[in-house]
């Protein structure tokens, strides 16, 4: 990514968003699917945006808050991926691939949150 300080979590979140955009484009032909695609895109892109914002946080509490929001968004994204898979809008290869990346990002965010909250004491 150009112009942003990078981190492994931000890079993975960015990769996930790049891979989900074409999937969502394929969903957006029918009205109901378009709504689902918008939800997926909002959750996914919010993860990276909050991670980028955390890099310029003004305090440890602000940093933790942004990471916490990103963690909640990755959890929401996993919900949407499961739903798309279960209703047949996402094939198993895409589902398991995207879920693995989301799980990886989630694990990084969880570890970051634990470290940030422990260091605030």
Explain the overall architecture.
- Helix content is 82%, strand content 0%.
- The chain is mostly helical and 121 residues long.
- The mean pLDDT is 91.
Write the element-wise H/E pattern from the N-terminal end onward.
HHHH
Annotation, overall tally of beta strands: 0
Mean pLDDT: 91
Oligomer status: single chain
Distance between the termini: 33 Å
What percentage of residues falls in helices of 4 or more residues? over 70%
Mind telling me the C-alpha Rg?
15 Å
Report the major sheet.
none
Low-confidence stretches: none
Fraction in beta strands: under 5%
Question: What is the fold's blueprint, element by element?
Answer:
Blueprint: H1 8-27, H2 31-54, H3 60-86, H4 92-119
Q: Quick recap of the structure?
A:
The chain is an all-alpha fold and 121 residues long. It has 4 helices and no strands.
Task: Provide tags for this entry.
4 helices, single chain, mainly alpha, 121 residues, 82% helix
